[in-house]
Write a structure and sequence with these properties.
Distance between the termini: 54 Å
Strand content: 15-25%
Number of domains: 2
CATH class of the largest domain: Mainly Alpha
CATH topology of the largest domain: Peroxidase, domain 1
Strand order of the largest sheet: 2-1-3-4
Radius of gyration: 22 Å
Largest sheet: 4 strands, mixed
Shape: elongated
Number of strands: 4
Length: 182
């Protein structure tokens, strides 16, 4: 498995060029398309990831498949990745690029878990409050998890704010277990 820091290095280079050329959205879509094709086509993925297949053959196949689908920038990046024998990057590059592009645009990903469906109006209000608090645009995803019993759990990046009934009950339970009986 390829190290994330190596993937990030390639993504940042592509991001810089895409921003400079004003093609951030197009490059992101094309990289996601490459990633999806590789995820869906196991034969192609195995061929490109096989260490004994020479880069020249891999680039020929990539040209046949991707040349008309992606811009010259993305195609040259694919060829460079193949030349450097980092083909595994291609299976995650779309997701990583989207994350980096969102960060460059000032968009923060947030996830809300609730015990029941919440109305669009409440969801919109929550999103607006988060955007005010964070000073950034928020890409909000909602999951219904009945096991949390009530309340919400909010994930912003690596931070977790647990306002669920289940979380509160667990904290009370832990406090009670810590009490010393005299």
């Amino acid at each position: 498995m390829i190290e994330r820091r190596i993937v990030i290095r390639y993504v940042k280079a592509l991001l810089d060029v895409a921003v400079r050329e004003g093609d951030l959205n197009r490059v992101g879509r094309e990289l996601m398309q490459v990633q999806m094709i590789l995820r869906e086509n196991s034969q192609l993925r195995e061929f490109l990831l096989h260490p004994r297949v020479p880069p020249s053959k891999k680039k020929k196949v990539a040209q046949d498949i991707f040349k008309g689908l992606v811009s010259p920038l993305v195609f040259h990046a694919l060829c460079h990745i193949v030349d450097k024998k980092r083909e595994e990057i291609l299976t995650v590059i779309g997701d990583e690029f989207k994350e980096a592009a969102d960060e460059a645009r000032g968009i923060v990903k947030a996830r809300v878990q609730t015990a029941i469906e919440i109305s669009e109006e409440r969801l919109k209000g929550l999103k607006e409050r988060l955007e005010q608090f964070l000073g950034k645009r928020v890409d909000l995803h909602v999951e219904v998890i009945p096991e949390i019993l009530g309340g919400i759990i909010l994930w912003i990046g690596s931070q977790i704010i647990d306002g669920s009934v289940r979380g509160r009950l667990e904290r009370i339970r832990n406090q009670l277990l810590e009490l010393k009986v005299a």
